[in-house]
Input
Amino acid sequence: MGKEFEDEAASPGDEPVSSCAEWWSVENQTPAGDTARDTDECLQVDGVQNADTFAEKMTEDEEQLLDELGMFGESRRKFLGHASAVGIGAVVLEILAEQRALAFERTGSVPAEAPLENAVTVSLKINGAQKTLEVDSRMVLLDALRERLGLTGSKKGCDHGQCGACTVIVDGRRVLSCLTLAAQCEGKDVTTIEGLAKGDSLHPMQTAFLKHDGFQCGYCTPGQICSAVALMQEAKDGEASYVTADVRQKAHSLSLSDEEIRERMSGNLCRCGAYPNIIDSIREVHTGKPTDELGSMGKEVKHAAV
Amino acid sequence: MQPFKFTKASDAGTAVQAVMTNSNAKFVAGGTNLIDLMKEGVETPSELVDISRLNLAQIRSTANGISIGALAKNTDTANHPLVRRDFPLLTQAILSGASAQIRNMATNGGNLMQRTRCTYFYDVSMACNRREPGAGCAALEGINRNHAIFGWNAACVDVHPSDMCVALAALDAAVNIQGQGGKTRAVPFADLYAAPDDMSAGKMLAGDTTLKQGELITSIDIPKNNFSDNSYYLKVRDRASFAFALVSVAAALDLGGGKIRQARIAMGGVAYKPWRATEAERFLTGKPATEENFAAAADIAMKDAKPLEHNKYKVELGKRAIAHALRKAANVKAA
Output
């Protein structure tokens, strides 16, 4: 395809905007950890070079796939740079899943895939909207949200209940969607990161994370925020933690120390180490008192300078 | 994950029947351990019977103490007013385990039935008698820093991962079990977990617990006690939170007239089940709650420890943890 590809790359104005947006949204869902970082680095450093060599090796089928996805010009180049790092098949499959999910969002009907061996029909409320799904008994809530409903805010980090990136709120409680069978969610009320804002108005916890820079790469952030939102209610309800001095003293509304916040947020890991700013974000929402925008790290720096 | 049939149980009786008639079926409630093990290929049930909606979540006071439903969530149990007031040791132990998200999902029955976190059990390419009876134990000569110092033999050197269970062992809990035909029985906590059989005697591990296939935990009873003013759960781990215990200690004292009327000491992270230090408890009975007596009790508790190659540190750590937990329980300041 060499020549044609180069011609299109030379005129970026022709590229379809919608597919480009979809591509970037898909790119942001790459799994956590080394893969995400490696692919990002690859895209930035070697992407263009790889795109050219990779483009030459593409089969006709693969070229046709990209045409069908509406990928031309610059978006195609970026895609190839990325795909060369992780394999074209995986990326295309993810885009197709996304498109299927978006189609489902619009029509409200479940797209038929391969017949399910152990199908379970589940009706549940997700971010206020009633949904009915037919799922494989093995499907966990996280995959139902991401792969079937197009709600890719909840992230798949470790997929084993150890990182908290998949945290969502079910019936008012923060839980791990990666260890929750979708089949067990009949009648449940699920809130994901996508359901926290009211229209264009962000949830106070989202605003606080933005203000205090409570993230770096952002991959753990939806889980952190869902977890923190549920924590605010737990504090109001006077729930104890392992660092609570006397669990026999039941308070109706707790004032959480930083130590308490850290203990109660220990199920949400952040590989970038944005913890000080995450604590600042949560403390601000919990106390209702705005704190220094620089956050605790900034404060430390200021103190050190004095 | 292998395909499985998913069925919802309408009552405890049908749930028991379903799992009893299919030797490859399992109950599922919170799923925090089972689903993980299924993703790893360690557990491969052909059927899951969902018991999460059964009416077994009540926590209520009884004539003899408290009854805690098997399907009450760990979070709700830890924060129940009766538990916080009368059994604060249980509250502390539960809250020291896992993360808020996991405690919100996990049930009490599931906490009791969770399986070892031995890395060789989790790795299906390694020898493990727990996973495959007769296969051997890779941990015995492997990296056994996190493994047992009490109650082990060549068949298995794993430790029970629960914190909640350490408090339940200290508090002399009993576990109520429903079996075939609605028959029920109560098992003292000390008898719930099966000791690893000695492989040299030609036996193999039958299972983690003394429960038979299909038997269902319905509730846990804890008798009244006089420990609520003087108890403490100490957990020592590699990081400050959300990690399994290297060593943990549930300590409870009944103090009166300047003496210890009764003492309870149970340890986590040291054996296939929560390990009661009954000899140390007897030593403390009738003695004043002093630093010296706590140190002596700790020595007694650890004297029969048999560490493996990489966990010799647990003997000294265990002594210090017991003494510290007793001090905290008695509100005695360290010297």
